[in-house]
Structures are given as C-alpha cells and as structure tokens.
Amino acid sequence: LYYNVKDEEGRFYYEGEWKEDKREGKGIIYWRNNDVYKGDWLNDNIEGKGIFYYDKGDIYEGDWKNNKKEGKGNITFYNGNKYDGDWVDNAFEGKGIFYWLSGDKYIGEFKSGKIDGKGVIFHEKGEIEIGVYSKGIKSGKYALLSSEGKISIK
Fold first, then answer.
1. What is the DSSP string of 112-144?
2. What is the pLDDT of residues 119-149, one digit of tens each?
3. Is 103 helix (H, G, I), strand (E, B) or coil?
4. What pLDDT does residue 2 have?
5. Which residues of 27-42 are buried (b: 16+ CB within 10 A; e: fewer)?
6. Would you state the pLDDT for residue 145?
7. Rounded to an integer, what distance in angstroms lies between the CA atom of residue 13 and that of residue 34?
8. Chain-wide mean pLDDT for the chain?
9. Interatomic CA distance for residues 144 and 21, integer angstroms
C-alpha cells in the first residue's frame, strides 16, 4: 500500500509504502526542520539504502540500520569536505577516505568519527604523510615524502 501521512503535531510528512500500519519499502519523509530522507524503510525504521538531505546542506548516501548510518556510505558536507567509507552507529568507523575542500586527502582508519589508526595523507601540494593517528592527531613518528621525492622520518 502507498500512503501520504502527516503526523498530528506537524513534525513530518511521509509519502511511501506501508505494511501493517508501519512504514515499509520505499518512502520519503519530510521533517519540519527541512531534513529529508528518501529510501528504504523496514518495520517503521530507516533501514537499507537511502539518501538523507540535512537542512544545513550535508548530504549522506548509503546504508542505514535502525535509523542510523551503518555499513558503507558517503557524506558531502555543506563546507565541501567529503567522507566515503565505513560507518558504525552514525560515525566514521573502520576504513575510509576523507577529502578536504583544500584538495588534501586521507586514506586509512577511522574510529568514533575521527581519523584514528594507520593512514596516509596526500597533500594537495604533493607531500605525502604516512603514519599512525589517534583521535585525529599524529601519534608517534611518521614518514614524510616531500613533493621533490625526499623521504624523512619525523
């Protein structure tokens, strides 16, 4: 079945498939704060594949489980930065790539939404850093390959 539903308090408007009085299948929900989700529903929860448009301009596209980003997905932030990789409990977790608007790029491990673990930063100006990071900060020594091809340990 396909329905258009507005909640009694005007918090959201849902348009999509229903099964046994629950959102199930494909659907779109528009929240009062201008957030919009378009994608899969299971047992009245956002679950499966979908795109979430945040009112401030961020856009997430990927996997969902029990109303949370979970699995593989990518987000483009309103400021132009991007992340593509693994998600757990709404946060970057596992392996992924973070792109800064400046042109710099990090490929490596993430934990609790931060650069954390082994990784490589490719700077827009040609330098490459290889090292270990903890909560977004370099942890210990790292290798630096200059744009001229010189290697140093920092």
1. TTEEEEEEEEE-TTS-EEEEEEETTEE-S--EE
2. 999 999 999 999 999 999 999 899 999 999 9
3. coil
4. 67
5. bbbbeeeeebbbbbbb
6. 94
7. 11
8. 95
9. 58
